[in-house]
Input
Amino acid sequence: MFSPKVLDRANVIEFRVSRDELAQFLENPADVEFRYTSRSGRFHGRGFCSELQKAMPEHLFCKREKLSEELLKFFYELNTVGAEFGYRSAYEIQRFAALSEQLAEDWEFE
Output
């Protein structure tokens, strides 16, 4: 979380996502495109993301299509009031579901 002091000084750039764009992303989440980054730190990011993908395989979640359906319904309802979420949130929810399924024996999607 960010403290109110930090948020008071933050500049916010809001990128809107359409339902169709989110649906397309949920079908095939894209990897980070490191070729568009500059500076030497990009190599650290590439290694970090590579290890993170190995540790958190969201594609292993057995009910991925059902989760995507539910996310799109939720996205639609939030969109009606201008409070929808973006790619990162959808991706993190998929990763959470995959890890929960793998680590918690009694975890259920429903």
Remarks:
- The mean pLDDT is 75.
- The longest helix spans residues 87-103.
- The two ends are 28 Å apart (CA to CA).
- The helical segments are 4-8, 19-27, 42-55, 64-79, 87-103.
